[in-house]
Amino acid sequence: MSTPPIEPAVVELAGITHRYGPTVALSDCRLSIAPGEVHGLVGENGSGKSTVVKLLSGIMRPTEGEVRVGGRAVELRSPAAAQRHEIVTVFQETLVSDECSGIDNVFAGTDGIFRRARSGRAERQAAEQVVQSLGAPASILQSSPHHLSLAERQVLTLTRALVRPWRLLILDEATSALDLSTRDRLFALLDDHRREGRSVLFVSHRMDELEILIDRATVQRSGRTVGTVDKDEATPARLLSMMSGRSDAGEHHVRAEARARKASDVVLRGVELGLAAQAPAFDLDVRRGEILGIGGLDGQGGSHLVEVLAGVRPSTSGRVEVDRDGSWTRVTGYRQAFRSGIAYVPGKRQEEGLFPSLTVGDNLSLATLPRYSRVGVFRASSVLARVREEMSRLGVVPHDPSYPITGLSGGNAQKVLVGRWLAAEPDVLILNDPLRGVDLGTKRDFYALLRELTEAGTTVVMLSTEIEELLTCCDRVAVCQAERVFDVLEGEELTYDAVLAAMFGRHVDAPAGPTGPAGPAPHDSHDRKVTL
Amino acid sequence: MSATVATPLLQTVARKVPYFVPALVAVGVMLLLTASESETFLDGGWKLVLVYASPLVLLAMAQAPVVLSGGGGLDLSVGPTAGLVSVVIAAVLIPRDLSVAWLVIVAAILTGAAAGAVNATLVTLVRIPPIIATLATYLVFAGLATQVLGAPTGFLPEWMSWFTSVDGVLPNVLYVILGVGLVWLLLTRTAYWRNLLMVGSNDRAAYTAGVNVTAVRFLAYLLTGVMAGVAGLVLTAVLGGADSTVGPTYTLQAIAAVALGGLSLAGGRGGLFGAAVGAVLLFLIQNYLTLTEASSFELRMAYGVVLIVAIVANGAWDRKRKAR
């Protein structure tokens, strides 16, 4: 384990215990952040890391123990108090008001109730500088954020933190909303700040980001601090095993053996599809029983593609067809797609998927109720039996159909959402970034579940923003770039570098192997084999 | 790529045009209709209409800060507060010969502020949902007013007729309304405006950014109370006395006026000007229907229909504006 830093810690948690009623969220938590370091905080959901973030950002106060800033015990009664101690936080949710301009969003909270802390001009200058260093146009500060992309909205919340005086910046999964280029700019910016002695507490599920950025990492498991490790020790395998308490955790990174599917056995296909007005058309085949990953940077068409395949959004040109007993049926809308055996699980589970006022059981059985009903009336007991069966198959915790859906963790809620459509026994399951912000353990369970499904003959199309995830669980990966499928990678060609390159519209030289060139990337054959 | 796609015209309009413009256009239409129906309207009649509309205008303006503050912000007690103020003036101050102008004005504002403080405490500190908390104070204030003043009275000091005078170029109540507007305008130049809109549209974002959400909302209820106090003063003058049963009837009209004026009942969007325009619109509709000798039942039905149309149009407008 690490040697304690010589300088006094910027922020320190000493023997913190936090209870919500009878539940112990955090017990004897120890965390010490040195000046000028990027400190990783990792752990699965329920490990207590979000509690740590809430304690440090003044949203909650600990039941027992001390928060020390610069060696002195302090009480952080509110986010404003935390900011007075120069602790600023950026959360995973992009907390932006649509009714205020970008600049008001950035500086809200710096003023008194009436008194303005800075002039409008000083505000503009400070904000523009930060926004531009993150690679976003200064225009996002002027208008109201309605029409901004998720990444641009997150740039606003990052700017909100960075324009304040700070010595500790907490990034709570804040990078998951960013596109790659903004993220890289942020990392470069953080490097500069680190040299000036400022510290960052970096909470992330992304091993690749942790590897790039951190100096030390603290691992949490089930509300307890497992330990703090230095950069050289903090390999993904080591962190994972500390997180899970299992030694086989490194296996997560080993790619499951991709199975070759017959290229001729196509279950769903896009013919001359156009995703946007100016974008070139492309063809895409989904093979029976495979897991087809859809990758790409934010806003490059990946999300549009899965929505078009599922019939939720019309394509600009071309058509989507599904195989129905040997003949091609055109997909015209999501209801018709559902009847044709395509189930779609939307991405933003809170907004588009779950019914917060209903129980877990109701949420799970919603889509399939008609199957249990006779003349519109269904028997609660038969539905309940099926629900219980589904819940144990999916491994939903707690195993209680009457539990409120809002009480579940993100990963478990996602299982319920997927389970709802699985109960309909679809031929093709289309998932829109199902695992954003879900912990590793749940992810592993989820990958295994998808494998199981495909063994049983279901075909899976899954959008993911994480390259590692695509590599871990997909047989083939279609990478979207500029509103089209740029390349389809499989077999030996399917590597981290190749996916990353394709996201940026480049091809890497495929290593020589028995597998031939990957799927078609029409309309751009002239620039194939450009090395990144 | 979104930058290159041309935005549809309606969306651009919805984004560029301020929230209160539809109501303002409707007011213009109603003015034309009224002028065509009544010969005296343009020839000074409008001043009298404004005098009668002024309590509603002020109460709609009073309603605005709490609605803007979000979190289901609403003050059902504005009507009874105004009623209580008129009772305090007519049944407490005047019988004791405490009818000096400054004293009456201060008393009206303080009574309103006290009512606002009670609501503010219940909503922001005790954390009772606004609709419940202010329904309770609605009943309490209305009951208190009737307790103090059983039967209507009509003795007012001479100076109070200033409010209802239409001898000048502009009716005097307009100066009161503009005065309240001016104070509010000054307030919007401070950080409070930003704090209020932030809290009203996304209180989690505001809280984590460091805004004191409780203080901002508390102040919104207090401001609502103060303005309801001013409205009570004007109401007393317009009625020419005090009647404990009149105040409460204004509450629902004030809320309807706020919706008509284009404010979002969910909070965060709008302003006092829109609320005032909405109130004028509501009053003109009522006035027009009276001119055309519609029955009081038809009048009420018209209110309901207008309200539904306003809220539906409001929602459609907002969707256009927010479409990406």
The parts of chain A where pLDDT drops under 50 for at least 5 residues are: 247-254, 510-532
What is the helix/strand order of chain B? Answer: HHHHHHHHHHHHH
Helix amount of chain A, in percent?
Answer: 25-40%
Number of domains of chain B: 1
CATH class annotation of chain B: Mainly Alpha
Could you give the count of β-strands of chain A? 22
Major sheet: arrangement of strands of chain A: 6-7-8-3-9-10
Give the low-pLDDT segments of chain B.
Answer: 1-5
- CATH architectural arrangement of chain B: Orthogonal Bundle
Helix content of chain B: over 70%
Name the overall outline of chain A. globular
- Number of extended strands of chain B: 0
- What separation lies between the terminal Cα atoms of chain B? 12 Å
Average pLDDT reading of chain A: 83
**Fraction of residues in β-strands of chain B:** under 5%
Number of individual domains of chain A: 3
The structure class of chain A reads: alpha/beta
Task: Describe the fold and architecture.
The complex is a heterodimer of chains A (532) and B (324). By secondary structure, chain A is an alpha/beta fold. Chain A folds into three domains: 176 residues, Rossmann fold, CATH 3.40.50.300; 67 residues, no CATH class; 178 residues, Rossmann fold, CATH 3.40.50. Helices cover 31% and strands 24% of the residues of chain A. Chain A is built from 18 helices and 22 strands. In chain A, the strands form five sheets. Chain A has a six-stranded mixed beta sheet with strand order 6-7-8-3-9-10, with helices on both faces. A six-stranded mixed beta sheet of chain A has the order 16-19-20-13-21-22, sandwiched between helices. Chain A has a four-stranded antiparallel beta sheet with strand order 2-1-4-5, covered by helices on one side. The two termini of chain A are 38 Å apart. The radius of gyration of chain B is 20 Å and the shape is globular. Chain B has a single domain, classed as Orthogonal Bundle (ABC transporter involved in vitamin B12 uptake, BtuC). Chain B is mainly alpha-helical and 324 residues long. The chains are: A alpha/beta (532), B mainly alpha (324). At the A-B interface, α2 and α3 of A face α8, α9 and α10 of B.
